[in-house]
Amino acid sequence: MSKAFRELLKKVGSGNHTGENLTRSEAAAATKMMLLAEATPAQIGAFMIAHRIKRPTGEELAGMLDAYYELGPKLQPKKSSNSPVIVMGIPYDGRSRTAPINPITALILTSAGVPVIMHGGDRMPTKEGIPLIEIWQGLGIDWTKLSLTETQQIFESTGLGFIYLPNHFTLGAGLVPYRDQIGKRPPFATMELIWCPYAGDAHIISGFVHPPTENMFRGALETRGFPYYLTTIKGLEGSCDLPRERTAIIGIIKQNTELQRLHLSHNDYGFSNINPPLPPTTNELITQIESVLKGEPSEIMQSAIWNGAFYLWHCGICPTMEAGIAVTKEIINNNNAAQKLEEIRGAIAALQLAYKT
């Protein structure tokens, strides 16, 4: 048993009257002790559920991020790109109700020259929804077989990278079973949405569900005091996917500036109010995504255009949302997104062939 960890556990687990928030350095120390298994399983589980009940502060999330930045993996900046890198913070436990659009968005952005980094793992408690890794596998891109060095090479050559926890951050993956054992998302699930496994300055785009989470995000990044550009999306199932059944609520936060609020209504741009549902099987979802890349009309195509247009506009590729819609349609209809998918497949195949020979 770690006596040092027990003291930190007592602070967060003592209840409303005597409990205390951790300082940034204490939160970092506690996170490191959990990642390195210096705390016992009983202590780790108790900390996670106590911290969830208490709710983390921005300062505590900053300390947790400190530990992840110290012990976790980082992709290095691309030498051949001047465009800011987009890091998407998407819940690790996946989707269970609506069709994920973000892999298509990533292909659209990288087709337009905007580098994208995603991160996550396998099926994960508590939702056990379809994770990003399975969607990419269905599209013929298996990030699970790549080392961090190989992922860096793919990121450098194609503009798309994926940090896969079980391979690239085994310490982080070691905390996943606790999510099932405590039956709730721990505060780590919040912190992961603003974790940036990238060594350069990035534009972090984080999905959220509950409004207080957005304030926690900002508090954490302001506490850490490094240059940042954060966009928050009240997206589908907490993801970065813009909804269509309601107005999309977006927060834009740059260092030393006030939060700017953006509201986008599907009606204003000629889209219906339908969010494509998650199909019964992964194969059906892959078929739907491939149909978008082929330019075939559908509801998921409409969501792909809606999201692609926003991100191209928001990342500075297009001057207006209307221009973003036109450029997204052009990228899809000219097979640019499909060609980007083939480019990534080919780069991975060539890399694996080179290692075999």
From TrEMBL:
<dbReference type="InterPro" id="IPR036320">
    <property type="entry name" value="Glycosyl_Trfase_fam3_N_dom_sf"/>
</dbReference>
<keyword id="KW-0328">Glycosyltransferase</keyword>
<feature type="domain" description="Glycosyl transferase family 3 N-terminal">
    <location>
        <begin position="6"/>
        <end position="71"/>
    </location>
</feature>
<protein>
    <submittedName>
        <fullName>Anthranilate phosphoribosyltransferase family protein</fullName>
    </submittedName>
</protein>
<dbReference type="Pfam" id="PF02885">
    <property type="entry name" value="Glycos_trans_3N"/>
</dbReference>
<dbReference type="GO" id="GO:0016757">
    <property type="term" value="F:glycosyltransferase activity"/>
</dbReference>
<dbReference type="InterPro" id="IPR017459">
    <property type="entry name" value="Glycosyl_Trfase_fam3_N_dom"/>
</dbReference>
<dbReference type="InterPro" id="IPR005940">
    <property type="entry name" value="Anthranilate_Pribosyl_Tfrase"/>
</dbReference>
<keyword id="KW-0808">Transferase</keyword>
<dbReference type="InterPro" id="IPR035902">
    <property type="entry name" value="Nuc_phospho_transferase"/>
</dbReference>
